[in-house]
Queue: 4 jobs
Job 1
Amino acid sequence: MYMFSRLTVRMNSPYFTSAALDSSATETMGKSTINKDGIRRLRSRMAQGLRSEDDPPKVKAEVQEKSISDDPTHAHNPADCVKSTSYNTTSKMKEEPDQALLSPRKRGRGHLKVEYETEGVGLKREPYDWRTQLSFIREMRSKRDAPVDQMGAEKCYDTQGLPEVRRYQVLISLMLSSQTKDQVTAGAMQRLREHGLSVDGILKMDDETLGKLIYPVGFWRTKVKYIKQATALIQQEFGGDIPNTVEGLIRLPGVGPKMAHLAMDIAWNQVSGIGVDTHVHRISNRLGWTKKETKTPEETRRALEEWLPRDLWSEINWLLVGFGQQVCLPVGPLCSVCLNQHTCPSAHRSSPSKKIKSSPAKPNNKLASPTALVKEEPEDTSAQRVSHQRRKNTGPQLNQQDLSASRQETPSLARNRRKGRAGAPLSGQT
């Protein structure tokens, strides 16, 4: 109440009314009519001073009166209205500095954008022009005539068998394919299927018979042991069917991450990861699809899964395996026939001689050189024939001359021979 009374007394002051200003101005003009310009300046200064000093209370009074007249519930408590108006004005005064401080933050939005971009690059780093390289590999693999296309794990199981039998045969083919060519694996799988390749059949089979059937796969003795142990674990813990998770498959002896991901894709039709074997590991490093050179297939798998789209995880294995079997060989890759020879950072490094064959200028020289050799060979042979013929022709003449000379020298030679015979010492004389 005290604050409200003080505010009303101040509002009734003559300084708030325009009449007071006019009266004071007229009195001043009546007293001093000499310097009207000075009076006007003084009057304007007084008006500006009064406005700067008394405008906030005037605003508060207007807000107060309006709030009291509009809201009848606050008519009996004017002090609360004063507090609320003072709180509103202070809050507005506090908001103005905040808005002023927001302007430098708006200027700093560029820094936030840069941080976001760097985080995005760090989270997903795609190799340069990898889509073009992949399209070229698809083009080179369009015939599907690699060994993996005819004798891979997808072609070795019995399509007429039960689902659990088919899945078990897929797992066995993957276990046999480690460090073994597809031709050898396909032959071993065919012999096993003829003897009944199933969980019960392998458990009943002795180690010696199993070894003879899978020979000559790589490390066949070790694989006999692993197949027996894995089959027993499948029968005991998984009910005669292979596990349907990567963790369960890796628990089996002789089964690694590559086999587990491929088994999930082929047997269970679930893409859980990229199956990286020696071909995928080698080609990915040659193409520069990893941030740095990886040492193991498992490191390559993690590096590829960081940026490669998930819908390509199933396709990338058979693409690169067949490509590695036909073009990007472990030793002596055929860079001259590869469509990626101009974008692959490792092109012609492993096989420097292939670069000469693929260069545009050298093939012309090579094509010209054999023809030159072919043209020169007849010339050489003809010259040799001519010289040989001449020797044949001159040979008899020389022989006749020698014979005639020998005939002419025959009497003298005969006399010398006779003299030599006559003057020759007898055996025993010195």
Job 2
Amino acid sequence: MCALPTVQVDAALRHLGCTADVVTLDPSRLEDDPLFCGGHWIPDQVRAAGGEPVGMHEGTASGPTSWEALRAVAPEVLVVAPCGFGLDGASEQARVVAEQVPDATVWAIDGDAMVVRPGPRLVDGVEAIASILHPGVLPPSSLTRSLRA
């Protein structure tokens, strides 16, 4: 399934005409496991929201990466969307990400609700990511939280 932008997101993106380099992360257990960068449909969500996916696994499953590799792609925005966690759990993990990648804007998103499960709510995920990338054009989503904007 591919997420398609809603009319509101599409209109906002036409108005803006800009993109940002974005990485989505699933740092489920940061102490024990490697970081996972988004794959499957997540790069499509980022692109539909007006971002440019960097360091992601295009056309394949989400996959492991390292802090060094993440810093090397120099993302402007990091969206932490861990599988199995709501917004509070994502926010806790995003704090660690913000410490490890100090030059990026870091956001937590309720990945379970809008990113990691295929279905109609993927469109909500596109809108939420667009609200992160284009503040002031789209209203903020209640399922996102800024750790360092």
Job 3
Amino acid sequence: MMQLIRRVVTVAAVSTLALTGGALAATAAEPNQQDADWLVANTQTDLAEITLGNLALQKAQTDEARELAQKTKSDHETALAKVQEIAQAKGVDLPSEPNDQQKAVAAQLEAASADDFDLLYGHAQVTGHLQSIAGTEAEIANGSDEDVVGFAKVYLPIAQGHLEMAQMLVSDLGGSAPTAVPAGTGGQAAQAAESFGLPIAVTAAGLIALLTGLVLFRRRRTS
């Protein structure tokens, strides 16, 4: 399993090189609302992943979780710099912190016990990257600015590599994670909850309830 994880890391590392390359197009179309919204969402995802990566490097108990944390942290730091460069050139204002749901997930993970942390972190990574992938696919399909769409095309396989690593982490820890969801946070939270029989509201509080439910589910299985 570790060899498979290293293969995913190696493939993602090759893709990461493209994050830093390429000059902005001189004649790109003006960004539409889709482009601006994706730049904002991607910035928040990058900031959240950097925060979670630092947290996991402190709290993770397994090599797989620490490897995932280091990989996501490094890639999202690189992605954040590129998004900021594009947004500045396009006149798009970016947030300076993650969104409320991402902050709530980080707080839940920070409060998690050492025994529960890795599985909770894995699930948070799966749901977060499913959401990011869905949003990126929407940008590729509907964006108008070639620089923004071009970067989304570079970013997509990197996010997919992170997702695969997170799914393997959850599987190795005896958990079960969704593999596909409709676009939007609600779809992801609902799909993940359904796989554990957890009827939760599709809100930031609902995602926290999901993570709490996963802890209880894990404890029932190991008791």
Job 4
Amino acid sequence: MRRMYNIEWLFCIEILLHFSISNCGKVPAIIVFGDSSVDSGNNNFIPTIAKSNFAPYGRDFPNGIATGRFSNGRIAPDFISEAFGLKPIIPAYLDPSYNISDFATGVCFASAGTGYDNDTAKVVDVIPLWKEVEFYKDYQKKLRANFGDMKANEIIKDSLYLISIGTNDFLENYYTHPERRLQHLTIQQYEDFLIGLAEKFLRELYDLGARKISLSGIPPMGCLPLERAINIWGHHSCIDHYNDVALEFNAKLGWLVTKLNKELNGFQLVDASAYDMVLQIVTNPSQFGALAPRKCTCENNLFLVMKVSHHMKELRLNNILLR
């Protein structure tokens, strides 16, 4: 998949923890929705080509296991969970080796390749966002059956929800399939369509009891490895148009965050975009102690940004936890 790095999450960790610890008290669980940036292995258990349960994925994961994470090691929700004193690895909901006792302190419903738009999930036959919500409803039923209503409601209300999704809607759907462009003649119309879907999704989570949500915007998608690789006439530089779309869409997400925080009582929704930081790392890697790669390859998933984050993440988390 094109969205194969998680740096925007890694550089939001400090923001997320500061927000959650200072304003939200104890967090009993981390609950995750989204795409490949946060999928901890759900796609292993569905018939799709969008999988990462093979080498070199997982090279830096404990015991070098390729778990289905689109990463060389753990992904950002894992580190966030550990920073809250919870388990260091958030399990995939569809993984049969885990049960509701494991999921009570953290669970991932994300599916690589999905998007806000249901048609995006159809591109490579992955879990659509509405189905992730259905899995979440099933999860709530299991919580109540095993821990009782009072404990279950406490977990649902006090958990920190992480959402990272949206890039595939543009790169795997709108810009790839002409029929979507016929339905939404301008990219701005499609952005507004996605914002409507995002609002519906967030309101549904609120109605289901979620109160603390971090919503990630999309990264500078014109700088993703595949986009740079195919930008031959641009000497493999970032595709500015895609980045402009990302900025425009993120601004609309920010507007939505403000709107919902005003309208929904007790809702604490955070705009966790780190577009600028990601762009700095991609365009000026030496500032972050890394060398620019001579070529960009998607096969090994060891992108520059992942290498930078690998060296920085433990230090950043330790600094946060010491505060």
